[in-house]
């Protein structure tokens, strides 16, 4: 058996900070909780604010604006402002060396099952970027039961969710996938198959990116039933419950000031909903919880296989989400706009008894989303902490150090860009530097966790390190405990805000006036970040997260 470590990287899709038991949730996730109990929980782990940019950072170890996803591919395809710029190819570009490419060249067996979202063309698909064995969903989401209505012209009714899959190097139709199909279960089945048939003389790198709990909200009836009535008190009550448990678990401070729930344009608060609307809203949360529980069960199957084969001890297991909880139909809006609601009404049955089944199509909405990201502000697509701070678990007791004790917790700042250098460091594999396979590539901006995890180094990123974020016109720049945030109208006031995250993780107290010199320094760092990464900002871009009125969507009675 290989002496080099194996790697299992598990990514949930749009999972909120407190959506698993180990992070204060009421949702049943015993398998992830066990990994956390025997591993390390990170409260300071950060991603991009949306799906594909985060995945590009994971695969490249560098900033999404350098790796090809400077903006969501769905936006780039329809906005000439971004087209033609380096770093805005809408796919993982050839100016980065992808992690599976590097590991393949180093003798690792590279395996993937799940969501790709890093490019549709053949040369950008997972097999072309280094995964030797792969089953993958190419776009940003898919029906969890493969229910795919088509129009008379034979194009998908849900145009932002074309049912495009790959099996190895071949692109296949959803009709080629054998049933019964449920996304989390099928992705796991394929991963288990790959692991069972692999060459055990080689170490493996396995990537398991689920599509749960991303919309459409769908789960088995029997799993949904377990949560019946659990969310009848509404999102604010749930938020308060979770905040209390986060405090009890030592994941947030007792005196934290959480950011209050914000209501986007067109959404009613829980108090404004009538009994029928409340019942529908609560049912959606029940389905969401069931999706998380099913995902956890499937993760448990993978961990058990590794245990049974005696491989878990030598496997670095990492779990997180790709961004904060979803509060709006992010990928859908650029493609279909106000046609979304009409299409759903025509092709799907969203009656309360049918919500959660394959022929239903619902999403969670901003209030439940904010319950999952508290104490942080807002959710996916926001440069505030609610969009970029995610739950994270590391299981690798073999390394000792801060992982030698059970139930370990760290509040250290880390980033998704750190995964690539960490994996390479633990594997004893050098990054190729500035040239790979005859092409120029970017060096990683992330840092290896290995010295920190083993106790040889007290931190990953020192207090002078600077980190930037930008998507959808929102921007942030951070150094140590200080973070500056730019929110354009109508989400903000076209000005830089300053927060001390050590004292104010909820970003509730703007210190721009009190610490103007620090803000000035951070803004200078922002301009440096823009220049280094080639970031371009479209200030006329429609607002995200449900706050923009430009989509023309009437959200009443649909997305509470």
TrEMBL record:
GO molecular function, one term: arylsulfatase activity
Keyword Metal-binding: yes
CDD domains documented for this protein: PAS_like
Pfam families: Sulfatase
Keywords: Calcium, Hydrolase, Metal-binding
Record domain Sulfatase N-terminal: where: 5-429
PROSITE patterns xrefs: SULFATASE_2
Similarity comment text for this entry: Belongs to the sulfatase family.
Protein name: Sulfatase N-terminal domain-containing protein
Originating organism: Kwoniella heveanensis BCC8398
Taxonomic lineage from the root: Eukaryota, Fungi, Dikarya, Basidiomycota, Agaricomycotina
């Amino acid at each position: 058996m290989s002496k080099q470590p194996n790697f299992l990287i598990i990514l949930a899709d749009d999972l909120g900070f407190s959506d698993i038991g180990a992070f204060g949730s009421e949702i049943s996730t015993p398998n992830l909780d066990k990994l956390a109990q025997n591993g390390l929980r990170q409260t300071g782990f950060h991603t991009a604010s949306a799906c594909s940019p985060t995945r590009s950072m994971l695969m490249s170890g560098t900033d999404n604006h350098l790796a090809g996803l400077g903006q969501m591919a769905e936006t780039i395809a329809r906005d000439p402002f971004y087209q033609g710029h380096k770093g805005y190819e809408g796919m993982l570009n050839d100016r980065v060396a992808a992690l599976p490419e590097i590991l393949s060249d180093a003798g690792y067996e590279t395996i993937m099952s799940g969501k790709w979202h890093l490019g549709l063309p053949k040369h950008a698909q997972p097999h072309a970027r280094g995964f030797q064995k792969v089953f993958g969903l190419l776009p940003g989401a898919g029906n969890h039961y493969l229910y795919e209505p088509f129009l008379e012209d034979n194009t998908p009714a849900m145009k932002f969710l074309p049912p495009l899959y790959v099996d190895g190097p071949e692109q296949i139709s959803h009709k080629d996938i054998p049933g019964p199909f449920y996304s989390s279960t099928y992705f796991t089945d394929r991963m288990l198959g790959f692991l069972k048939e692999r060459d055990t003389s080689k170490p493996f790198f396995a990537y398991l990116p689920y599509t749960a709990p991303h919309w459409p909200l769908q789960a088995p009836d029997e799993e949904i039933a377990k949560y019946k009535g659990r969310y009848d008190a509404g999102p604010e009550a749930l938020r308060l419950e979770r905040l209390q448990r986060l405090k009890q678990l030592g994941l947030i401070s007792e005196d934290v000031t959480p950011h209050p729930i914000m209501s986007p344009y067109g959404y009613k608060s829980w108090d404004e909903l009538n009994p029928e609307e409340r019942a529908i809203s609560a049912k959606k949360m029940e389905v969401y919880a069931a999706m998380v529980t099913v995902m956890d069960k499937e993760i448990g199957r993978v961990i058990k296989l590794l245990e049974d084969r005696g491989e878990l001890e030598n496997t670095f297991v990492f779990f997180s989400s790709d961004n904060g909880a979803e509060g709006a139909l992010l990928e859908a809006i650029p493609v279909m706009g106000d046609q979304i609601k009409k299409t759903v009404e025509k092709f799907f049955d969203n009656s309360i008894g049918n919500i959660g089944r394959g022929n239903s199509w619902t999403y969670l909405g901003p209030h439940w989303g904010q319950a999952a990201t508290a104490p942080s502000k807002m959710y996916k697509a926001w440069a505030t902490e609610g969009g970029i701070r995610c739950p994270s678990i590391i299981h690798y007791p073999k390394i000792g150090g801060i992982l030698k004790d059970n139930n370990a917790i760290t509040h250290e700042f880390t980033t998704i860009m750190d995964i690539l250098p960490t994996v390479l460091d633990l594997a004893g594999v050098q990054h190729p530097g500035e040239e790979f396979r005859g092409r120029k590539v970017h060096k990683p901006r992330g840092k290896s966790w290995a010295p920190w995890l083993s106790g040889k180094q007290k931190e990953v990123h020192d207090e002078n390190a600077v980190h930037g974020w930008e998507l959808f016109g929102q921007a942030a720049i951070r150094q140590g405990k200080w973070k500056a945030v730019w929110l354009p109208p109508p989400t903000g006031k076209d000005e830089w805000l300053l927060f001390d995250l050590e004292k104010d993780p909820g970003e509730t107290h703007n210190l721009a006036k009190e610490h103007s010199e620090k803000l000035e320094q951070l803004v200078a760092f922002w301009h440096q970040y823009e220049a280094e990464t080639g970031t371009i900002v479209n200030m006329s871009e429609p607002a995200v997260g449900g706050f923009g009125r430009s989509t023309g969507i009437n959200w009443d009675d649909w997305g509470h």
